[in-house]
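Quick note —
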Amino acid sequence: MASEALAKFRPTRVAVEWPADLTRERYAKVLAGTLPPSRNEVVQVGFRLAQRVGLKEVNGIDVAGEFPYEAVAAFAKAHGQEGLLAGSYRSVTSEEDAAFVGERLRTVTNVRNNLPSIGRMLVAGLTQSST
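Predicted structure written out below.
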């Protein structure tokens, strides 16, 4: 199980791709034993990991934002990767699929934009767990 393997690192914080308010609400239900079963990866991995290592809270780090498609397209063109970028949109067949792809791209941007703070949390957790 992924949460068992990750627990070996003894994290002191867990961050998940959900809004902070929703994360607080749902994780409180996990701790109370009232959250219904879910196949969602936040529940299956993030919440299980946090609960396994005894954390009282989980940090929701998902934020709204715009994906900088023009910058990505320019980078792809400059590095001969236009075909790869175009290919990623070829399989989008409906508005619903396009919305899903757009959301996934925004998520990548959010993670990239939050990497310094995520890195600080990870380093803090590793430093605390090694003492």
